[in-house]
């Protein structure tokens, strides 16, 4: 019986995916910030939103979207710019709230302090669907591990289950870890430091993504 994926390539994919799953990025930062609410239900709602977006990407990849991104680099750069702007907006509002010790409402943690699990889910979905790290994954990281001689839907199913499984473990660890530290993180002084740090990190990530994407867009402009 033919396996849906190439065993040797899949082994290498597991290593690459493990590194990507545990690396701090927009998704894991979102899980941490959500966990600061001290509400595990909100953490799981955020994780569900994040991974629902990942699943959408895999479905699109199965239908060849990653080939479109590779064939038309402009698509990748535009997604990167949109993702950078979204992350920058979240980071700015988070940082702004950290400047005010008395402030209890911030943009990213709006999902945490809200009683709406659906709102938390939507915020998580928005973070991941526009996450340039995800776009890079599908346009650069995943293709080398795909065997073009095997059925694409079956391969994407295995890669999707593996990716989402690893991400869920990593995000849950980050999110529930923050839940355990909620009392510490919600102390006014610690809250300020946390918000400032997360805000700076998100704005820094956004700035780097925007700079590189904008540079590539300018390079694509016909002379």
From TrEMBL:
Keyword Transmembrane helix: yes
Protein name: Amino acid transporter LysE
Keyword Transport: no
Pfam family, one: LysE
Subcellular location: Cell membrane
Signal peptide: none
Domain of life: Bacteria
InterPro entries: LeuE-type
Gene Ontology CC: one annotated term: plasma membrane
Organism encoding this protein: Asticcacaulis endophyticus
Entry keywords, A to Z: Cell membrane, Membrane, Transmembrane, Transmembrane helix
Topology with respect to the bilayer: Multi-pass membrane protein
Lineage: Bacteria, Pseudomonadati, Pseudomonadota, Alphaproteobacteria, Caulobacterales
